[in-house]
Amino acid sequence: MTIAEKLKEKRTLVSCELFPPKRHLGFENAKAVIDETLALSPDFISVTYGAAGGAYKNTMGMAEYIEQNGCTALMHLTCVGSTHETIGGLIDSMRSAGIRNVLALRGDIVDGQTPKDYLHAIDLVGELKAAGGFCVGAACYPEGHVEAANQAEDIRYLKEKADAGCDFLTTQMFFDNNILYRFLYRIREAGIHTPVFAGIMPVTNKAQIKRIVEVSGTALPPRFQNILDKFGEDERAMQQAGIAYAIEQIIDLIANGVRGVHIYTMNKPAVARQIIEGIDAVVRAVS
Ligand code: FAD
């Protein structure tokens, strides 16, 4: 089933995200994690695409396995280092593997890299739509993408990307829901009416969040910073507090009418389970 079809069928969707094992390891190494995530019955499971596409076979293998096991898969695909020929081949392979949902991304440009046939994600969105048969999503950034001069410019490009045929958008993580509400207001005002999945990251260790903030520029509100300061060195306490924070964020989002919550579960099905169990009655109440 496509995510667009699911959005028509159900009021509130909750999804999880997994990443593939490194290229030299087969995707079979991730089967236990996938099986545990499948057991949580999320509305779909997304699988990230390794930087520069190094582990693409594992991404596709995982997405195919998820579909074969009765759950909708969303395959991430980056284009910045690719040629039209490579992407054309991947489109054919996704179709043969029964993968119908794709998150079309540019990918990060690494130092010294020159983009090949694709400059921006919009090019990939257009190509997937022209190929036909795919439900296409794309990324968006409630705090602005790190390369954007300002948020107005970022939203202008987002509008072009959405108009190229996005069926949905998924946000970068954020830790202050007001940032998302302001962003939703601004994009609707700019004429973007594409459904938006709110990306929620359960932070379970301090080192992880330090890296994320460096790369994405995501702001840490004082309430969250206090938790990190107090419990960051205590693994179990940080895990408990990080999960509780994510649950609280999700409940507030759903209470305010957000229809899609995408949990960056990062191959931690035990964390995903606690969150999904912590919101199950709330999600049922609005389904
Ligand atoms: P774009 O939409 O191309 O935007 C990138 C920048 O270019 C922005 O600043 C934008 O304002 C600007 N821009 C857009 N269009 C134009 C235009 N026409 N002209 C000029 N400027 C333009 N990375 C991975 O490697 N693998 C993954 O699996 C992955 N999954 C992700 C999932 C989500 C939900 C998110 C939010 C990010 C993910 N990323 C992933 C990271 C992503 O690849 C990077 O953030 C990347 O730097 C931008 O990708 P994009 O698709 O948003 O790019």
Q: Strand-residue fraction?
A: 5-15%
Mean pLDDT: 95
Order of H and E elements: HEHEHEHEHEHEHEHHHEH
Sheet/helix structural class: alpha/beta
Number of separate helices: 11
Strand order of the largest sheet: 1-2-3-4-5-6-7-8
Query: How far apart lie the N and C ends?
Result: 18 Å
Please provide the count of β strands. 8
User: How would the global form be characterised?
Assistant: globular
What bound compounds does this protein have? Answer: flavin-adenine dinucleotide
Share of helix among residues?
Answer: 40-55%
Low-confidence stretches: none
Summary of the model, kept short:
The chain is an alpha/beta fold. It is built from eleven helices and eight strands.
Your description of this structure?
With about 290 residues, the chain is α/β, with parallel strands linked by helices. The protein contains eleven helices and eight strands. It has helices at about 5-10, 30-40, 55-70, 85-95, 120-130, 150-165, 175-190, 205-215, 220-230, 235-255, 270-285, and strands at about 15-20, 45, 70-80, 100-105, 135-140, 170, 195-200, 260-265. The chain has an eight-stranded parallel β-barrel with strand order 1-2-3-4-5-6-7-8, surrounded by seven helices. α10 (about 235-255) runs parallel beside α11 (about 270-285). It is globular and about 50 Å long. It starts with a helix and ends with a helix.
Describe the structure using short key phrases:
287 residues, 8-stranded parallel barrel, 11 helices, alpha/beta, binds flavin-adenine dinucleotide
